[in-house]
Amino acid sequence: MFVAAIDPRVQRIEQLLDQLRLSQRWLAGKLGVTHTTVKNWLAGGGARDSSLLDKAIRHLMAEQRARETLSEASVTLTPEADARASLRARHPIGATAIVPLWRGVVAGDADECHFAEGEAPEWVEIPAFLLTHEPERYFVAVASGSSMSPRIGHSDRAVVRLDANPPKNALCVVRRTDGVSFVKVLREGRFPRPYELHSLNDAFSPILDVKGWSFVGVVVAILKDPEPGSPNIEWNLGQPLKG
User: Fold this and answer.
1) What is the C-alpha R_g of the chain?
2) What sections of the chain are H helices per DSSP?
3) Would you tell me how many other CB atoms lie within 10 Å of the CB of residue 231?
4) How many Å apart are CA 234 and CA 242, to the nearest integer?
5) What tens digit of pLDDT does each residue of 176-213 get?
């Protein structure tokens, strides 16, 4: 049986295709018909098979239910997926943020990898999705030295979120009593030391005497210069990176 008159089911099909952002070719594949057939239905031309119209609506409604179920599961079962969706909502693709830049300098003769603020304020533009809090709580530090290589190499950039109480094993920025700031891994200390600061490069010894040192923040992303075949951003949904 063929229906030539205007059919409200055609309007429902158009509505669902648009709502679900599905193509006419997708629907044609589900129904086993040509793209031209579906195109003609929606354009109001050509005969329409009533059973196929019903089948099309069933496919579209099933797809809608599947997406709703997946969305609910993402919130209740996988917080990471929910976090990604939240970040996408706050930061459209291509959005950037402006944060302060700390340039690295080499102090002493140990070739340590540490960061220090320059005399004149500098700013840098980074992808906005890297920030899960207000931009005012972040800065970018440019590495100098090799104590954290190969993970943080010379001239790599670390995105740091201000945090005076970083978790154990986090990559963090700490400030020595003379004002020099280092990036290290925060480790549990042996009594009576509350904590120790470790490098990722085994050639460098841990910093054990941390009396008077203060925490500046946690590293939430590492940015490297792009290289073919290699990722240039290390990031864990805004969580402190661990060492």
Assistant:
1) 28
2) 8-20, 24-31, 35-43, 50-77, 79-90
3) 10
4) 11
5) 888 888 899 999 888 788 889 999 988 888 988 888 89
Residue labelled with tokens 């006419």: 24
- State the pairing for strand pair 214-223/171-175: antiparallel
CA distances from 59 to 13, 15, 223 (A): 10, 13, 44
Measured in whole angstroms, how far is the alpha carbon of residue 85 from the centre of its chain?
Answer: 10
Neighbouring C-beta atoms of residue 12, cutoff 10 Å: 15
CB atoms under 10 Å from CB of 18, counted, come to 9
Largest CA distance in the chain: 88
Which residue type occupies 91?
Answer: H
Q: Look at phi and psi of residue 212 and say left if phi exceeds 0, alpha if psi is from -120 to 50, else beta.
A: left
Q: Are the C-beta atoms of residues 173 and 222 closer than 8 Å to each other? A: no
Chain segment 11-36, per-residue pLDDT in tens: 888 888 888 777 888 788 778 888 88
Distances (CA, A) of 50 to 4, 22, 55, 60, 145: 10, 21, 9, 16, 72
Q: What residues contact 136, with CB distance under 8 A and at least 6 apart?
A: none
What phi, psi does 138 have (nearest 5°)?
-125, 155
Instruction: Please provide the DSSP assignment of 103-171 as one string.
Output: -----TTS---EE---SS--EEEEEGGG-SS-GGGEEEEE--SSTTTTTS-TT-EEEEEE-SSPPTTBE
- Which structural domains are found in the chain, ordered by start? 2-77 (1.10.260), 96-235 (2.10.109.10)
Whether residue 181 contacts residue 102, with contact meaning beta carbons closer than 8 Å, is answered with yes
Q: Identify the residue whose tokens are 């402190």.
A: 240
